[in-house]
Amino acid sequence: xxxxxxxxxxxxxxxxxxxxxxxxxxxxxxxxxxxxxxxxxxxxxxxxxxxxxxxxxxxxxxxxxxxxxxxxxxxxxxxxxxxxxxxxxxxxxxxxxxxxxxxxxxxxxxxxxxxxxxxxxxxxxxxxxxxxxxxxxxxxxxxxxxxxxxxxxxxxxxxxxxxxxxxxxxxxxxxxxxxxxxxxxxxxxxxxxxxxxxxxxxxxxxxxxxxxxxxxxxxxxxxxxxxxxxxxxxxxxxxxxxxxxxxxxxxxxxxxxxxxxxxxxxxxxxxxxxxxxxxxxxxxxxxxxxxxxxxxxxxxxxxxxxxxxxxxxxxxxxxxxxxxxxxxxxxxxxxxxxxxxxxxxxxxxxxxxxxxxxxxxxxxxxxxxxxxxxxxxxxxxxxxxxxxxxxxxxxxxxxxxxxxxxxxxxxxxxxxxxxx
Length: 420
Ligand code: DWN
Ligand code: ZN
Known about the structure:
The chain is α/β, with parallel strands linked by helices and about 425 residues long. It is built from 14 helices and 21 strands. Helix 2 crosses helix 3. The longest helix has 27 residues. The radius of gyration is 21 Å and the shape is globular. It starts with a strand and ends with a strand. About 45% of the residues are buried. The site of ligand DWN has 21 residues, from helix 12 and helix 14.
């Protein structure tokens, strides 16, 4: 496959009424971090389309997943906030649902470094995972030869299939089917062939009448209302409201029976789905009504959003330029995918002295599209900044708590530019 292809129809309803509403221009891949300034950085179109039939927002292209996820640098467990969120989910699921066995099973799709699996394991679940990136799959297994005596490997290891979760890979793992709980946090938005994913899910749930699927995705209403345009990047193929998810899951006879909202990752919805039979919680209808009330099924909502993006971008550039005129230093904290996007789309590379990130896999690399280096936290102490740009604003409290002692001011870019 060429490294990307153009979307031909809506990935949920297969309709052709796709209307572009935001074009962020040719943009580097947010997590493909170059090692050297002269490394070739590929750019790809970054345009968002609105489906007038099912209201799914989606990118106009699909970048080859192998390009995006083979050497994947994002590690979920770097954030304590996210680990706490995983703990809340595991505890709530254990308390909320009755399982046949006192050792229920849980499988996490695209389990990254195992942040969620470990929390379900602590709650007494037998856990497994799928993860396409080899290094992350090894980390999720907790399979650390050095510290685990050979005869004790089994007790620490979590079985993880180093593959994408597809109908084919699911069918190949026949012995694995029948989980009580199947989870996928920040996955559905990354999947191009959603029907293939759903067929794999149906297959996985085939042998367990009471199986439940729990999926978490960034919520498009929050993205729009909080102007979180930097979360639009090539890994995020789709931007969900409940409505298109409902259409997709009902098409595969796995109706969504409950939905919850969480602040994590800038605002996310958690959907619960199962085979027909469970009572549909009022939260489902309430959210559909909410989306209708806030005109999320109207194109004009998205045309207005595009203007807000332009205004926020101008505001951020003015703020940054004003600070640089005072000859102050600016450091970005968080080489997040959204941060890479923000820096590129607003042309901030020339104003940022360096970036800090606590992810070892990101350190020593560069922000793509710039010559800005990513350093470990220790650089804050050897080269303290006047201002810290919170490029991982979704973890604002956690980042401020860790850096307060430096006495720097903070630039918060989203939902509106503020200096605190
Ligand atoms: O969907 C996705 C979300 C869930 O995560 C993926 N496609 C990619 C990724 O997006 P992101 O990189 O924008 O996510 P985060 O979790 O907002 O990125 C935070 C960045 O900040 C990471 O690179 C880690 C870094 N960080 C840090 O260095 N120290 C974060 C915290 C909380 C810290 O204390
Ligand atoms: Zn559609």
